[in-house]
Design goal:
Structural class of chain A: alpha+beta
Largest sheet of chain A: 3 strands, mixed
CATH architecture of the largest domain in chain A: Orthogonal Bundle
Distance between the termini of chain A: 37 Å
Helix content of chain A: 25-40%
GO cellular component, one term (chains A, B): cytoplasm
Number of strands of chain A: 5
GO molecular function (chains A, B): DNA-binding transcription factor activity; transcription cis-regulatory region binding; zinc ion binding
Order of helices and strands of chain A: HHHHEEEEEH
Number of helices of chain A: 5
Strand content of chain A: 15-25%
Oligomer: homodimer
Family (chains A, B): Belongs to the Fur family.
InterPro entries (chains A, B): FUR, Fur_C, WH-like_DNA-bd_sf, WH_DNA-bd_sf
Radius of gyration of chain A: 17 Å
CATH superfamily of the largest domain in chain A: Winged helix-like DNA-binding domain superfamily/Winged helix DNA-binding domain
Number of domains of chain A: 2
Cofactor (chains A, B): Zn(2+); Mn(2+); Fe(2+)
Chain lengths: 146, 146
DNA sequence: CAGTTGTTTTGAGTAATTCAAAACAACTCC
DNA sequence: GGAGTTGTTTTGAATTACTCAAAACAACTG
C-alpha cells in the first residue's frame, strides 16, 4: 500500500527539515499519512506493526519533532488528547463530534487562509485563525434517531 | 467592589438554574465575574480570600456545575488548562498569545452567532463554531522588540 | 425544625504528557 | 568504510490537570 518512492519522499522531507532519517520517524510519518486524526496511542499501535518495540515516549518525541518541522500538524480539541494529521500548510479547519469525538476536516470557510481577521484584536499581532466546529457526526445522528 | 445586590443577583441566577445557593458557588461566581479568563487554580486563589479553606476539588465541582448551567463558559485552548469566563451566551471568540498564553476576547467576527457555516461538513450536524486566533500579545511584542 | 437531597470535603486514582540520563544509531569526515 | 560527533531513542520516573468515590455536611422542603 506504500511504495519505495513514498519512503524515499519521506526521507527527503525529513532531511530537508534538518532531521535525521530514522526508522521510528519513517514509521510515524507513514502511520499518520492519510489516516485522519490520530492520537499518540493510535500512532503507537500503527507504528508497532511495522516497527515492534517502539516506545510510546519515542512516538511523543517523533510527533513533537515532526510537528515542529511542519511535517505534521497537531490539533487539540477540548476533551480530546492531542491529534496529529499529515495535511499541513493549508490551514484547513475541523469538525468535532460532541458525542463520540470523531474529527473530520473542513475546508477553509472564507476564501484563502488565514480565513478570518478580527476587527479588534486587543493589541495582539495575529498570525493564525483556528476554527473548530462542533456538532453530531453522521453515525451519532443515526444512533440517536434509531 | 461588589454590592449586596450583586450577591442577590448571583443567588437568583443559581436558583433559576436549579442549583442550591452555597457559599463556594457565590464565591466562585464572584471570583470569575469580570476577571477575564481564569483556570481552576486561579479561581481557587481568588476564592480563598473570601472563603478560606475551600478545596480545589470544590472549585472543580462548582466550575463544572456552573458551566453546565450556562452561568460560566469554559474554553480549552491548546497548551493551557481549562479557562473559565463569565461572559456567556454571546458566542464571542478568543485570541491567545503564543508566547505567554494570555487570552483576550474577540467579538464575533462575521455578524451574528454562530458566525460561520462550513460549506461541506462531512455529514455533521453543526451547532457551534469556535474561533481561536493565535498571535503575540502587546506585552510580548514589546519584550521581543525591546 | 426534622428529613431529604444535593454539595463539599477528603483522599486516592488516572490520563496524557514531560523530564532526565544513559544507551544507541545516523551522518560527517577522513 | 570506520571512528567520532551529534542527535535520537529508550528506560524510568515525575508532573499537571483533572476525575472518581465515599463520608461529612449544609441548603431547601414541608
Amino acid at each position: 500500500m506504500h511504495t519505495e518512492t513514498d519512503r524515499d519522499d519521506a526521507a527527503a522531507r525529513l532531511r530537508a527539515a534538518g532531521l535525521k532519517v530514522t526508522a521510528p520517524r519513517l514509521a510515524v510519518l507513514d502511520a499518520v499519512s492519510g489516516h485522519g486524526h490520530l492520537d499518540a496511542e493510535a500512532v503507537l499501535s500503527r507504528v508497532t506493526v511495522a516497527l515492534p518495540g517502539t516506545s510510546l515516549q519515542s512516538v511523543y518525541n517523533v510527533l513533537g519533532a515532526l510537528t515542529d518541522a511542519g511535517l505534521l500538524r497537531r490539533i487539540e480539541p477540548a476533551e480530546s488528547p492531542a491529534l496529529y494529521e499529515s495535511r499541513t500548510g493549508d490551514n484547513h479547519h475541523h469538525v468535532v463530534c460532541t458525542r463520540c469525538h470523531a474529527v473530520a476536516d473542513v475546508d477553509c470557510v472564507v476564501g484563502e487562509p488565514p480565513c478570518l481577521a478580527p476587527s479588534d484584536a486587543a493589541g495582539f499581532a495575529i498570525h493564525t485563525a483556528e476554527v473548530t466546529f462542533w456538532g453530531l457526526c453522521a453515525d451519532c445522528q443515526r444512533e440517536l434517531a434509531g
